[in-house]
Batch of 2 targets.
Target 1
Amino acid sequence: MPDRIAGMIRADIARPPVPSVPLHGGCHCGAVRYEITARPKAVNACHCDDCKRLSGATFGVYLHVPKPALAVTSGTFDTFRRTGGSGHTIPIERCTECGTRMWHLPDAAPDLVILCAGTLDDPSWAVPTSHIFTEEAAPDAVAASDALVIEAFNSTRQALWAHFDRIYSVSS
C-alpha cells in the first residue's frame, strides 16, 4: 500500500532540473506568446474544486513567476474574474482567439503571475514542489515524496517558495 500524507499518495518521482531562462510558451492556437526572464519561485499543484473545473483535470499545475519577469511577445487577452476560496478576486487572462487560460493575476499578490504550466513550450520539467488544497484531491492524486503537501492552503506563498528553493538548491 503506498504511503499517504494529507490525502496524497507519496511516490519517488524523478525531478528534472529547472531549465535556464528565458522560458517560452504560448496558447493553443499560437496567437499568444510569452517569455519568462526569471527563474520561477515555485511549481505548485492546486487541488481545489475551482482549479479542477478551470483546468478540466483533477488539479492545476502553476508556476509562480515575478510579474516583471513575464513579457508577452504577441496576442491579446480576455479577462475573466472569479472570487477564490480566500475571498480575493482573481483575474484570469485567456487568449481572445482560442480561449486558452494563460495565467492568473491575483489581487492579493500584485507582483506575481500564477502561470499555467501547460502553456510552457516544454512543461516536462514542471513537477510540483508543493500541493495545496489536498483535502479536495482526487483519491488517486500523487505527490513527489519531497513535495510540500498542504490540506487547506492557509499558509503564505513564501512557504511554497522556500520549499522550491530547498529542493532545487540541491539539484540545480
Target 2
Amino acid sequence: PAIDSAEVVRFIKEKASNHLVDVYPIGAATLNRKGESISPILELYEAGVVGFSDDGNVIKSAGILRNVLEYSKITNAPVIEHCEDESLADGAMNESFNSTLLGLPGIPTVAEDLIVMRDIMMAEYVDGKIHIAHISSKNSVELVRQAKKKGIKVTAEVTPHHFSLTDDNLKTFDTNFKMNPPLRTKEDVDAIIEGLKDGTIDCIASDHAPHSIEEKEMEFIYAPNGIIGLETQIGLAISELVKKKHLTLEQMIEKFAINPRKILNLEIPKIKIGETANLTILDPEQIWTVDISKFKSKSKNSPFDKRLLTGKSVATINKRKMFFEDKFFSI
C-alpha cells in the first residue's frame, strides 16, 4: 500500500525495528500516490517518515507540488521526485539513433528535463527542498548544477546502471536492460560522471526494482521497467568510478553513506570507541564475477550477470548484530 497514513508508517517501523538494516520510510506525497490530493504531510512526518515522494509517479500538478513543498518545508524533509513528463514518456527506451535502428518507441531526455526545470523553479519559489531521483540526462545534470550555484535547495542522485551502461546495450533486446528512466547515450553518461565528480550529483542509489523472470520474459515493449541493484551497486561504483579515477574511495562512500543521511536529516554514525557500530565493511580490491543464481534477492533481473567487478560489501554491523559470510552473529 501507499505510505499515506500514520498507521502504515508505524506498521513499517515496528516490523523493521529488529532487523539488521535500518529502514526509514518515505511518505507518499499524495493520497495513494495518485497525484490528486495531498497526503497528511505533518502527520506522516510525526509518525516517522524522512521524506515525501510519489515514487515512480511524477506529481503532475504544479499546484499540488507547491503544496507538498510548502508543508514539507515545515518539517525540513525533502520532496523526492521521479522527473518525467508522462505525455512524452510513452516509450520503451531512450529516443536516439538506436531507438530508430531497433524500431522501438523512444523516450526523449526532454521528458525528464522539463520536470527537473519545473521542480527546481518551484523549489526556488517556495524555498523548499527538492531531490531529483535517478537523474539520467546531460541537460538535467546541468540544470541541477546551475540551481545549486544559485543557492536553490536541490539535490540529486544517480543509479549505478546510469553511469555503467548506455542505450547501445539494448541492441540485444535483453529486457533486463529496460528501465525507467531508460539508459541514455554515452554523452549523458559522461555528463553524469562529471556531475558526480564536481558534486552536482550528491548520491548513488540502487533504484532496486525486482521483477520475476516470467515478467521480464516477454516482448521488449511490454516487459516491465526496472532491475535489481542492491547486490551489484558497490562493485559497479568501485569498478566504474574509483578504479577509473573519477572518484576516490572516500568520495564514493560519501555518495552512498554520508550525503543521503544529510539530505534526509539523519544522524551520521560515528566510528569511535564506545559508540555502537553501524557499519558496512567493504573489500575494495576483491575481484568477483556477478552470478545471479547466487543473489539473495528472490528476483534475478540484473543486466550484469557474468560481469567481472572489483569491490564488494563483505559484512554489515548494526544494532549489536553482524552479518558475515551468510551468517548472523550477536556482538
